[in-house]
Amino acid sequence: MSQPSDHSTFDLSEISPIDAYKLTSGLVVPRPIGWIGTLSSTGSPNLAPYSFFNLIGNDPPHLAYSPGGGRRDSLDNVREIPEFTVNIVTVETVEAMNATAASLPPDEDEFDHAGITKVASRMIAPPRVAEATATMECRVSDIVHIGRPGGGNHLVIGEIVMIHVADRVLDGTRVDPVALGAVGRHAGSWYSHSTDLFTFERPD
Question: Which pLDDT does position 106 carry in this prediction?
């Protein structure tokens, strides 16, 4: 079978990890953003965005986020208190989300840094974002290391135990995607709005 002549081909064993990251993060798009709230054993809250994040199961619902590199607070905290909140990033909160991507000392509160409001969760200890259109409360099911020893990422898997959603985006348990206005992550500094939507009828 012939190969397209206008494509570049990359053997990932022959390029640097940063180049592999640039390629994959530019191709797997748009990625949903999990705005992850955790709590340390000393009571310090942490809030950080992860676009290595997705829903991974539905009976019961589970999701996962993947901290790696130098970003340790969200991983260290769930090892100490195995619970976290996932706050959905929308047009109303995208600037605050970006502010919480800053590298702050472990004892500095990202909620305060970004000027957003903490509110108590119902079933878990870590707080949620009051301004978020939707938040999921999760309990850790597993933490799995992925990649090279001493590097790579961890996959934090959590069971969703409670969901909070603004009434304005709901019709029963169906979410209006236009009203939600979720924001997606691309590579570099690029993001996208979920406003250019279309539908297909699924085949039988």
Answer: 77
- pLDDT tens column, 133-147: 999 999 999 999 998
Is 4 within a domain? no
Where do the DSSP E strands lie in 77-169? 83-88, 118-119, 128-129, 134-146, 153-165
Is pLDDT above 90 for 103?
Answer: no
Tokens 């100490």, residue? Answer: 80
Q: What is the dihedral of CA 52, 57, 63, 65, to 10 degrees?
A: -30
**Assign residue 117 a region: left if phi > 0, alpha if psi is -120 to 50, beta otherwise?**
beta
Average pLDDT, integer, range 155-183 = 97
The answer to whether residue 8 is domain-embedded is no
| Residue 11 falls inside a structural domain | no
Question: Which pTM does this prediction carry?
Answer: 0.93
Instruction: Give domain status of residue 7, yes or no.
Output: no
Residue 95's alpha-carbon distances to 1, 69, 104, 113, in angstroms, are 48, 23, 17, 12
Give the CATH number, domain containing residue 57: 2.30.110.10
Structural domains counted in the chain: 1
Give the residue numbers spanning the domain of 116.
Answer: 17-193
